[in-house]
Predict the 3D structure of the following.
Amino acid sequence: QVQLVESGGGLVQPGGSLRLSCAASANLFSIYTMGWYRQAPGKQRDLIAAITRGGSTNYADSVKGRFIISRDNAKNTVYLQMNSLKPEDTAVYYCKADRVGVPSSWGQGTQVTVSS
């Protein structure tokens, strides 16, 4: 199973930006589909962005146009650039690794708080 470690969370004012990173231990990182999820208190964990092995991306409507997912296969890392942050973006953010035939792997999460 893949070990995932998220970083980059913190406190930011509305309208600000943060970049989250998720470092993976996988030797075959490049073939994984990577996703970013978030979970606010009392709510379910939702997919907000994903990037395939081929670099195709998709986004939840709530973050489209503000967040950008990218990956650096040489560094076994996936990123989430978050711009124009809103208080409703406050949540714990998790990354997830998927590939056919093996169980999904999750990171431990990183807290993002958007508040003035």
